[in-house]
Design a protein that fits this description.
It is a single chain. The protein is built from four helices and eleven strands. It is of the alpha+beta class. The strands form two sheets. A six-stranded mixed sheet has the order 8-1-2-11-10-9. It has a five-stranded mixed sheet with strand order 3-6-7-5-4.
Length: 174
């Protein structure tokens, strides 16, 4: 029963417009409603004692925003920065409020309108990405696009620790 409720509750996130981006030659998408903005690659400030998939933080109009390397989060080797590398800034609701975080993309491709009938279930095994991060699979023409679950990528266990470290960093600068 809980699985059905979870799938029904998350189905609204899978249909509609998605920002499609490239990572290691594969195409992925986030619901546009989760995307705050896309920013050019900029140098990051490294933060000690955070998980290895967090590259550091950027200053986004006075707000400290942690940046995730999806390559590392997905268990892939880090990729070099190119002129097309960018940061997709996401907003994810949490109990403590809205979590704003950036994820590194090799390239942003398009905004794609996805209908419910285009979406298949996430794979149950295999692939390059942990299946818990995948909300669904879209087949568009000859392309396969993995729709990502931002809430799983921005897991509460990791972020509780990261928020504490960032608070300490901000207090040290006051």
């Amino acid at each position: 029963m809980a699985i059905v409720e979870t799938q029904a509750a998350s189905s609204w996130q899978r249909t509609g417009k998605h920002l499609v981006f490239r990572l290691e030659g594969e195409e992925y998408g986030f619901p546009v409603l989760k995307v705050q903005e896309i920013v050019r690659w900029t140098e990051l400030t490294r933060v000690p004692r955070v998980p290895d998939f967090i590259l550091g933080v950027i200053n986004l109009r006075g707000k400290v925003v942690p940046v995730i390397d999806l390559h590392v989060r997905f268990g892939l080797p880090p990729a070099p920065v190119t002129p097309r590398t960018c940061v997709i800034v996401l907003q994810v609701p949490r109990e403590s409020g809205l979590l704003v975080s950036g994820v590194v993309a090799d390239d942003v491709l398009e905004v794609l309108d996805v209908a419910a009938e285009q979406i298949g279930p996430p794979p149950e095994f295999g692939g390059r990405v942990n299946t818990e991060f995948i909300a669904g699979v879209v087949q568009a023409d000859s392309r396969v696009i993995l729709l990502l679950n931002a809430e799983k990528i921005l897991d509460n266990r990791d972020w509780t620790f990261v928020e504490k470290v960032l608070e300490e960093k901000e207090q040290a600068h006051e």
